[in-house]
Amino acid sequence: MIYSIFAQVYDELMDTEVYENWLTFVNNNAYSGKKLLDLACGAGQLAVMLAKEGYQVTGVDLSSEMLALADERAREDDTKIELVQANMTDLTGLDQFDVVTCGLDSLCYLANQEELANAFRQVFLHLNQGGTFIFDVISPYQTDVIYPGYMYNDTNEKRAFVWESFEGQEPHSVVHDLTFFIAKDEENNLFQRYEETHMERTYELKKYLELLTKVGFKKIRASSEYGNNEIDEKSTRFFFVCQKL
């Protein structure tokens, strides 16, 4: 994947309100301290915002390209965050934290329930007693009803972006085909084409609750709309706040 291309375009397209809402969601639910691990931190938008709020942030991502972008963003904002390349299913060697966050359905990129359970187990092991795990996932309604047939296009003088989504082979899964045309010269006469395929998978609410309980979380709250609403049959995203007691 050309993560750097996707990250730059994604930054341009993503409504900053999403990160502001996530920041509020974390502030409202981070009960136990300021030492925070941001899993799948990507290009570092949320990690930098959290650091500016006074959290001691460690950002983890599997992609070195994403981490390079996160480091660049932190330096530009004169903000200190620690960045670590790691898979969320194996956080061996990392410290203990008061809060762990994983936003923007990053957990849905894990291939199966075993990987998801491993990620939950790793989070639990690296949380201090009383610590909080805050994350979101897309819902089966999003994968089964909203995404299939979805298309989004965005263009400007320097690039064009096409996003198409299709139903995946596994239950509650979706395939995103992304195509980029990026200008190669200053006159914007030549464009390079890049393609990426992203696959996401989610589960029914009861499965998430079952896996979280099995790894040891005792207090689990699930909601929609950043904790502001109850989950119903048309909720597109589940938000979780889990405490290690």
From TrEMBL:
Occurrences of domain Methyltransferase (ranges): 37-131
Alphabetical list of InterPro entries matching this protein: Methyltransf_25 (IPR041698), SAM-dependent_MTases_sf (IPR029063)
Alphabetically ordered keywords of this record: Methyltransferase, Transferase
Coiled-coil segments on the chain, per record: none
Gene3D superfamilies associated with the record: S-adenosyl-L-methionine-dependent methyltransferases, Vaccinia Virus protein VP39
Gene Ontology biological process: methylation
Any GO MF annotation of the entry: methyltransferase activity
Domain of life where this protein originates: Bacteria
Protein name: SAM-dependent methyltransferase
Natural source organism: Liquorilactobacillus cacaonum DSM 21116
